[in-house]
Amino acid sequence: MQAAQTVEHNDAILTDPRWQALCARQPNTDHTFFYAVVTTGVFCRPSCGARRPRPENVRFFSTVREAEAAGFRACKRCRPSEPSSGAKNAAIIADICRVIDQAESAPNLTALAKRAGLSRFHFHRVFKEIAGVTPAEYASARRGARVRSALRQSATVTEAIYRAGFSSSGRFYEQADAMLGMQPAAFRAGGARAEIAVASGDSSLGKVLVAQTSRGVCAILLGDAEEPLMQDLRQRFPQATLRPASADEQKLVARAIRQVEMPEAAIDLPLDIQGTVFQKRVWKALQGIRPGTTATYAEIAAAVEMPTAARAVAGACAANKIAVAIPCHRVVGKNGALSGYRWGVARKQALLAREGSMREPKGGPEETRPTAKG
């Protein structure tokens, strides 16, 4: 009878996802459960470096209190009753983010690392791991947010410059175009002075609408008819002036249609990419996927060094407005299955088929090449 119970217990443990996390010593599961070993009377975090216990001796608990109530004592190696290193690091980085938010100018890396009590290299790695961006990228994003807020609230651009923390107008104008995607006065007017040239054409996958600013293509939209695509474009640039493309600008439509018909060809379109820091990193990683290959959302998350952010990667793919040139059609679901696509799964399937990168769902993803990390 006891032997049968032991076998049943072992089967339950071995099929429990927590056992796999224990075996892999996954630090990202440290806050989700604890395991105890009946032969030692000790309970640990899943990531503890202690020797792996036999499954028949393992017990799982959701909290420290439950493990202690069952008579187990905390491991002296991984100290499960104390805040995890991940929690400590998260608190440190949250404090650093507040420092950056409140600073008039971006603090240098050495000063931030000193406040965090870490070496420059370790601080930079931990910050990027937790925040998803480097300290410099975070500071730039926050500065951009302050600029946009100041331009909306200030009576003049000059007032906005100093409200946003810039010490001189020259430095502000040096960075304004990269932060706003247009001149400050145009942004303050809600993009009313921004001019976007629009043209459309027909492809084998339907209508292709191409929109471009003076900096490059800002949207490539696919659909069944032109008017819904124009409505989509107006929603994205509600205050901009949309005008028909000139004869020279029409050439970009031909290049965009060529990209739709031959997505495996090298992309040579000038792009005007606007998005959050995270979105830009994801889109850059998408551009690193070679034609003829695919990547899963989890693989892209790993490529941007945020392995637990697969869902956020999916959101960035959905926010992409530049079809084919930023090839979100090359991102597939788990096991290679097709997933959602802004312009329809049928178009996604057709694009992949043209590249020869269709693959049958199977037990695991094939090798891919999401190489760009941003």
Description:
By secondary structure, the chain is α/β, with parallel strands linked by helices. It has five domains: 2-74, DNA Methylphosphotriester Repair Domain; 85-132; 139-188; 195-261, Methylated DNA-protein cysteine methyltransferase domain (Double Stranded RNA Binding Domain, 2-Layer Sandwich); 277-355, Winged helix-like DNA-binding domain superfamily/Winged helix DNA-binding domain (Arc Repressor Mutant, subunit A). The protein has helices at 2-14, 17-24, 64-69, 85-102, 109-116, 120-131, 135-153, 157-163, 169-180, 184-188, 226-236, 247-261, 277-287, 297-303, 310-319, 345-355, and strands at residues 34-37, 42-44, 58-61, 73-74, 195-203, 206-213, 216-223, 241-244, 295-296, 331-332. The protein has a four-stranded mixed sheet. β5 (195-203) and β6 form a beta hairpin. It is flat. Mean pLDDT is 79; it is low at 358-369.
Keywords for this entry:
4-stranded mixed beta sheet, DNA Methylphosphotriester Repair Domain, 5 domains, alpha/beta, 10 strands, 374 residues
Secondary-structure map:
Elements: H1 2-14, H2 17-24, E1 34-37, E2 42-44, E3 58-61, H3 64-69, E4 73-74, H4 85-102, H5 109-116, H6 120-131, H7 135-153, H8 157-163, H9 169-180, H10 184-188, E5 195-203, E6 206-213, E7 216-223, H11 226-236, E8 241-244, H12 247-261, H13 277-287, E9 295-296, H14 297-303, H15 310-319, E10 331-332, H16 345-355
Parallel strand pairs: 2-4, 5-8, 9-10
Antiparallel strand pairs: 1-2, 1-3, 5-6, 6-7
Topology, number of strands = 10
How many domain regions? Answer: 5
- Strand residue content: 5-15%
CATH class of the largest domain: Mainly Alpha
Q: So how many helices?
A: 16
How many strands, which pairing sense, and closed or not: the largest β-sheet? 4 strands, mixed
Q: Are there runs of 5+ residues with pLDDT below 50, and where?
A: 358-369
What is the CATH topology of the largest domain? Arc Repressor Mutant, subunit A
Pattern of helices and strands:
HHEEEHEHHHHHHHEEEHEHHEHHEH
CATH architectural designation of the largest domain: Orthogonal Bundle
Whole-number radius of gyration? 26 Å
Query: Which word captures the global form?
Result: flat
Strand order of the largest sheet: 3-1-2-4
- Span of the ends, CA to CA: 59 Å
Category from helices, strands and their pairing: alpha/beta
Mind telling me the CATH superfamily name of the largest domain? Winged helix-like DNA-binding domain superfamily/Winged helix DNA-binding domain
Q: Could you estimate the helical fraction of the residues in percent?
A: 40-55%
Average of per-residue pLDDT values: 79
